[in-house]
Amino acid sequence: MWANIEIGIDLGTANLLIYSKDKGIILNEPSVVAINTDTNEVLAVGVEAKNMIGKTPANVIAVRPLREGVIADFSTTSRMLKAIMKKASKKLGLSLRKPNVVVSTPSGSTSVERRAIVDAVRSCGTKNVYLIEEPVAAAIGVGLPVDEPIASVIVDIGGGTTEVAIISFGGIVTSNSIRVGGDKFDDLIIQHVRKTYNVLIGERTAEQIKIELGYSPIEHEKITMEVRGRDLVNGLPKTIRLHSKEIQKALHESLLQLLKAIRLTLENCPPELSGDIVDQGVTLTGGGALLNGMEEWLSREISVPVHIASNPIEAVAVGTGRSLKFINNLEKASIS
């Protein structure tokens, strides 16, 4: 019965997604845990916990145990995974005792970081844990021909990291991983508002600003929005008006780092595969791909067609779930 239970997990810095072979994406929740520091009890995970960020009493903390694509707090990650797997088992209508699990990892992660991921997933009671590199999972998720000798270029802009990889014949030919992603964009917005207006805003407000006013370096009509925060001079609540041109400027430096990683990866591509890239183009996945104007800006800068995946946020999770059929071809760390 359990031989056919296959689950893919996208253990992301910002969101944790679970994919089931039979039901597709069964869970998509923020990677956040709320803990009572007095009793060390997990009060909430996912959406409920995210809603608590910055709004809890002193004895309750809402934490994100993953940073820059890897586990920063092992015990909290294990507890979050157990709670999330419990939710998933209810949705699947069975008690998940021994499923086969594939988990995505950043291509630049170390063996210690990979082992931590395996141990955390193991602690949930799984049969086999397989690791797959995020760009390969994303490529499978969007339906690129990963097991054929054709170059597929993936740029996965996640919460903690951006992964750029050229994939051919089931493996990564060349890749780059940089610690720039959605979280970095949020931090830059918080810093900009603090420096320019002497106002402190929270993570959730910064994320909202990024979604509405964040632009890659392209020409656009100026948009404005009202934002509330705490005045750092007198400590009172304050409302300010931000516009998209200043947010675009705040994000500019990080976006140039992202572009540099893409160029470096393309420069290291074997000449035989370069023709494929001109024909196939580059596919963008991850939440960061949705930043306004990203597709237009990148295609202009690298002179290669750039496409955003139809569902960029779910691409890695779908790829992890579908990857078990490629298990013999793909370069994976299998820990049995």
UniProtKB/TrEMBL annotation:
GO biological process, one term: regulation of cell shape
SUPFAM superfamilies for this protein: Actin-like ATPase domain
Membrane-crossing residue ranges in chain numbering: none
Annotated residues for binding of ATP: T13, A14, N15, G159, G160, T161, E207, Q208, I209, K210, G287, G288, A289, L290
InterPro entries named among the record's database cross-references: ATPase_NBD, MreB, MreB_MamK-like
Localization terms from the record: Cytoplasm
Molecular functions (GO terms): ATP binding
Major localisation: cytoplasm
KW Transmembrane (keyword) present: no
Keyword RNA-binding applies: no
GO cellular component: cytoplasm
Keyword terms: ATP-binding, Cell shape, Cytoplasm, Nucleotide-binding
Subunit relationships: Forms polymers.
Family: Belongs to the FtsA/MreB family.
Annotated function: Forms membrane-associated dynamic filaments that are essential for cell shape determination. Acts by regulating cell wall synthesis and cell elongation, and thus cell shape. A feedback loop between cell geometry and MreB localization may maintain elongated cell shape by targeting cell wall growth to regions of negative cell wall curvature.
Protein name: Cell shape-determining protein MreB
Gene name of the encoded protein: mreB
